[in-house]
Amino acid sequence: STTRSGSIPKQAQFNVSSSCLVAGASVTATLNGVPTRVGPSYDQPPLGPVGSTVLKITQLGLDPVTAQGAELCITLKPNRARQGCTTLDQLCSSPGFPAGTCTAATFDAACDCCPVSQVVQARPPPPPPPPPPPPPPSPPPAVPSYRACEVCVAAKLVPPPNDVRPYRFNAATCAAIQRNISDAMNAALNASNISPIAAPFAPNSTTCFDDTVLTCGNFNGEDLSKLERLFNEVSDLLSYFIGVASSGDICNPKLEGYTVLITTQDNICLDVSQSASCFLPNQPFPNCTCNTTQGVLPFIVSPSYYPRASPFFGSLVTEYCFTLNTLPAAAIVPSTCYKANDLLAKIEWYADEALRSAVKGYTITPFGGPSKKVFPSWGAPGTSTLKVNLNWNGTMANGGLVCVAVQKPYTMQNLCKGAPGQCYASVFNRDNSDYCCPIFRAGP
Questions:
Q1: Taking burial as the number of CB atoms within 10 A of a residue's CB, which of 134, 287, 317, 371 is the most buried?
Q2: Which residues does the UniProt record annotate as the domain Pherophorin (predicted)?
């Protein structure tokens, strides 16, 4: 209805509980069954009481005629964590009135007319008396009993405390994980003689997240003996699932410091869980006493290197290029070995001295700068240390490229010592006492 003679309601405000003001929670509204022009929104009025919250619905577009009998409906939706208000009892805040009573004000265009009213949530009428009982039906034919078991196998990435080289699932990786887990789970259901299967395990892009991949299915869990057999079948698959989630190698440098977890998340029908991390033996590298913790310097070596033709050393040489990046200042791990604006003094690799003659030098390219040919340099005999001096600042290092020139037929995998097929690279900020030398693994 109109608020007074000549006054037309343009917006409505409801007093609501501040507990409804949750990130991700949403409200929609319809006026006479049509979505409002502007969606409702929560607000904390600057001139209202401390802690007060309102729900605003603007641009109602009513006039004295259309306001008569107009019906305004709101729909409450929580966020993905099921937080937020979903009922009028939770939403409305009207001290002194029964739960579910909403206090609302309507405003005209000039916001100088705002009558306030209370609306009590309608209570359903008492149910009608039950009809007389019908005659007993004839017994139905016997059908097998069914207990729905909806199970999701989750592959999760658990990052290290200092996540300086973040790794996340992408769409292609998620699809591959879901495809392999689906095939194995459906085979396990068949091997356990479980039927019917309401929804076989199958890939679904909507259950792909950057740190979690869910692969889901729905089957009959009425027969406990068959469920026990399924439990044994799937338990034997967990190591395979970890391999699938880690692209076949839990010690892949991209997963350095990570834990890969496979779990059905305490599912009542099938509760299994297993995790794995990579633990490699310590290497005698670098050959000095310094702080090797990742993150104590802002300089990062990419977990992947790549080959390319050499621009300086000829066709008989292949260059293996390591990309460098930097951390924001807030992400640097506090230490005594780093001072703000320290340079990237050098990089060292744990390398086989027997292949000293195969290393022809380096091509170094600071970000935004020209490439430069540098001759090879090795540490003292017996230290297995290949090194190159850089003296780059943060701008030069972030996106900089250091390429090791190796004579064919040798490769970087032949040259590097340590984990099979991988290289240990250490970055330094200086060469004297109390310096940082974080170590990174990299692979092709």
A1: 317
A2: 11-115, 285-438
